[in-house]
């Protein structure tokens, strides 16, 4: 079935089931082909030219990973940025099945081929500042567990995909300063007796995305005895949305993921809800190749400008404010500290 026929068949459903199904099928397509933005020229060219050589980071001395990014700069003369300018477009790895972050709305026939969401807005902002054209960007759908390989291989210049900055990831990629604050949280059916990230998870089947900070937390806590030994964390999926589908099918009892993503999934499916409060503090950053310091500094300047202009707040209000509570720590951009 083509994507056009799929959207046509979904038109008029109006239910959250249609949205979830459309996003999952779209995610399958993403694993088969690179995704190029309809706002560009439609080709699937990959990035990576002129990216600096990798430099191994020392995770053993890492503390406060969100504060390890270099200071902002407006200099566009660096090797990596020069190569991007010569190519004429920015290659960005994104999600296309995370509701309100990076997704396609099957009911939006006017812009049925466009990606939209909070992360997509940021990618356009970066392209606009570096290349002078917010549409000079080619998007590539990247599964959760392929974000780092896509950067290291040069398939993309950067990943803007709800990616948490961690010490372990700093060994493999460079991060911008944080652009979003969230935390891990439990998502479960409203009828469930699960209360949060606590003893009520004993004996429950918990889903998380492979390569995610959620799985790392679950695994570490189970080894340390902070999570009930009877909790089953063996169910992992390539894309985080697949956990919601497993939950809907009754194959798992709960999902652990970033609270901001969980809130968007609860907005898709009114039969599930967030359980308890966030139990970690996580910062999203734009991930780039190690050694591409000129690009990292330039992105940090874009983030400074994005906050000052009100663009960040406008995007948050448009996409996320309806799904997050008014007192959410995510409601304002995190303060940046540089190394």
- The overall average pLDDT, rounded, is 85
Helix content: 25-40%
Residue runs with pLDDT of under 50 for 5 or more positions:
1-59
Number of strands: 14
Strand order of the largest sheet: 4-1-5-14-6
| Count of helix runs | 10
Give the N-terminus to C-terminus distance in angstroms: 50 Å
Global morphology: globular
Order of helices and strands: HHHEEEHEHEEEEEHEHEHEEEHH
Strand content: 15-25%
**Cα Rg:** 19 Å
Structural class: alpha/beta
Please summarize the sheet with the most strands: 5 strands, mixed
Explained architecture:
The protein is α/β, with parallel strands linked by helices and 339 residues long. The protein has ten helices and 14 strands. It has helices at 3-10, 16-32, 79-87, 118-131, 147-152, 213-224, 241-248, 259-268, 293-309, 311-319; strands spanning 90-94, 97-98, 102-103, 137-141, 158-159, 173-175, 180-182, 184-189, 205-209, 232-237, 254-258, 272-275, 282-284, 287-289. The longest helix is centred in the N-terminal third of the chain and has 17 residues, at 16-32. It is globular, with a radius of gyration of 19 Å. The model is unreliable at 1-59 (pLDDT under 50).
């Amino acid at each position: 079935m083509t994507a056009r026929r799929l959207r046509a068949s979904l038109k008029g459903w109006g239910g959250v089931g249609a949205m979830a199904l459309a996003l999952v099928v779209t995610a399958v397509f993403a694993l088969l082909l690179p995704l190029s933005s309809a706002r560009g020229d439609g080709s699937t060219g990959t990035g990576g030219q002129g990216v600096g050589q990798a430099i191994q980071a020392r995770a053993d001395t890492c503390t406060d990973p969100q504060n390890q990014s270099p200071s902002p700069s407006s200099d566009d003369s660096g090797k990596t940025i020069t190569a991007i300018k010569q190519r004429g477009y920015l290659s960005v790895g994104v999600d296309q099945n995370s509701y309100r972050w990076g997704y396609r709305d099957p009911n939006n026939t006017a812009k049925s081929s466009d990606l939209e969401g909070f992360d997509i807005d940021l990618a356009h902002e970066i392209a606009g500042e570096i290349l002078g054209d917010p549409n000079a960007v080619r998007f590539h759908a990247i599964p959760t567990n392929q974000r780092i390989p896509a950067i290291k291989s040069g398939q993309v210049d950067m990943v803007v995909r709800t990616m948490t900055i961690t010490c372990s990831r700093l060994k493999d990629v460079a991060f911008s300063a944080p652009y979003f604050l969230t935390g891990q949280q439990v998502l479960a059916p409203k009828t469930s007796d699960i209360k949060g990230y606590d003893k009520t998870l004993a004996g429950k089947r918990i889903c998380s995305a492979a390569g995610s900070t959620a799985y790392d937390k679950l695994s570490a806590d189970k080894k340390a005895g902070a999570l009930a030994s009877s909790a089953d964390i063996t169910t992992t999926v390539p894309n985080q949305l697949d956990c919601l589908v497993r939950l809907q099918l009754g194959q798992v009892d709960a999902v652990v993921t970033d609270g901001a993503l969980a809130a968007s999934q609860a907005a898709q499916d009114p039969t599930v809800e967030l359980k308890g409060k966030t139990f970690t503090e996580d910062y999203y950053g734009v991930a780039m190749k190690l050694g591409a310091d000129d690009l990292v500094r330039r992105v940090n300047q874009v983030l400074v400008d994005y906050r000052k202009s009100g663009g960040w707040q406008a995007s948050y209000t448009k996409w996320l404010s309806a799904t997050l509570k008014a007192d959410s720590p995510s409601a304002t951009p995190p303060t940046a500290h540089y190394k």
